[in-house]
Amino acid sequence: xxxxxxxxxxxxxxxxxxxxxxxxxxxxxxxxxxxxxxxxxxxxxxxxxxxxxxxxxxxxxxxxxxxxxxxxxxxxxxxxxxxxxxxxxxxxxxxxxxxxxxxxxxxxxxxxxxxxxxxxxxxxxxxxxxxxxxxxxxxxxxxxxxxxxxxxxxxxxxxxxxxxxxxxxxxxxxxxxxxxxxxxxxxxxxxxxxxxxxxxxxxxxxxxxxxxxxxxxxxxxxxxxxxxxxxxxxxxxxxxxxxxxxxxxxxxxxxxxxxxxxxxxxxxxxxxxxxxxxxxxxxxxxxxxxxxxxxxxxxxxxxxxxxxxxxxxxxxxxxxxxxxxxxxxxxxxxxxxxxxxxxxxxxxxxxxxxxxxxxxxxxxxxxxxxxxxxxxxxxxxxxxxxxxxxxxxxxxxxxxxxxxxxxxxxxxxxxxxxxxxxxxxxxxxxxxxxxxxxxxxxxxxxxxxxxxxxxxxxxxxxxxxxxxxxxxxxxxxxxxxxxxxxxxxxxxxxxxxxxxxxxxxxxxxxxxxxxxxxxxxxxxxxxxxx
Length: 530
Description:
Elements: H1 7-27, H2 38-49, H3 69-80, H4 85-111, H5 116-127, H6 131-136, H7 141-161, H8 165-181, H9 184-200, H10 206-231, H11 237-242, H12 248-262, H13 267-271, H14 279-295, H15 313-320, H16 322-326, H17 342-370, H18 377-385, E1 394-397, H19 402-407, E2 410-413, H20 420-424, H21 430-434, E3 440-445, H22 458-472, E4 476-484, E5 487-493, H23 500-509, E6 522-523, H24 524-527
Parallel strand pairs: 1-2, 1-3
Antiparallel strand pairs: 3-5, 4-5, 4-6
């Protein structure tokens, strides 16, 4: 350990660990079912754990709809060891969050010699951030953030203390793991490498360059060829569905999320440009941050719950801000503590305490407000449908999370995130839908029997294909649940199989809670007399 790392640091690390646990117990609701989008990955992990491979539907060809690849594999392995799917998913996320909190403190103390209180305050900002809310919702976001932070720790160590083979190798190994978790990890860690080269120069970064290129070309190349062979396509299925041409709106959303997450610490990057001693360091540390924000200019921001795509930048910013503001002390006279009288000391303590509390409260309020989600009626319907999972029924749905996971039914994801044909052919068609002859058609619409069907985007076109097919083939409209007639869930049931009437009645009788408000939904189909 560094000579500045003392027994006090150990106590603070223990405090941070305990505080994180207590904060989770006090402020985070772990009683709810998975967030809709998180349940997608959990279905893959469950099938993998049961030995069916990485498949959406048991018995079908592999498909990579779980973008967090290594996280999905790890969850599956934990389930194989006997843990429940839900506990395994949250356990990995929770441990990852705790370790990242501790790593932020260790980085500030060991690499930049920041004070005890300043380092603890920075870590507490991460504690009360959205990380635990991602864990509550069953996302693997904190697992990705952990390995990106480990990569950044070794990158910062190389930048601050110079390159060695061991540090370079550790940087590249952790970078490779980061890339295995999510594909954009390649972009992020590649930007970290550029940061090292920009600040230290090519000659003093040669090991990092050699190792990064060598490992990513060799092991990364083998992994790339394996996944291409296994899945039939080189990239995860959602990338084909969500990738777009350059879209300024996506960039603005990415930038907004990053600003909201990191706002109190972003001025340090402006301060770092003030002094000649820190300009190069500031620009270098900004490379992975600005580069990663910009990378989303061609990626749709759908499913970006609580800015989770950009969350990885929060610990990176927290690990980087302090060395950028230290140099300003040399250009301005700041009296030493023992030079201040009692009145000034008290005022200064009150000011710093107030600012610190304000910053922590800002993050807490933002995270609690945005991280709130509610009981979801799709989960309750899924439990009803699970009674029939041995009947080999099929559901076609736009909602590929809770319904497929907890019903156990064969599922056609009509949006295409988990269907290769749809993702590669521009959308679902009536002909493709008819191949499945689904027993249930369920979709999320922005209309109801009480208001007209209007829209002109790809989602509306998909919904209308499903609606026309259901009506053409005489499906029974069991329910149109919603908290508003302009935002609803349609349930159509085929009427030519023995269990259809029973399923219709059970769905109509369910207490359907609207996921966006937590209020009991209205069945607009019954109001309209459908």
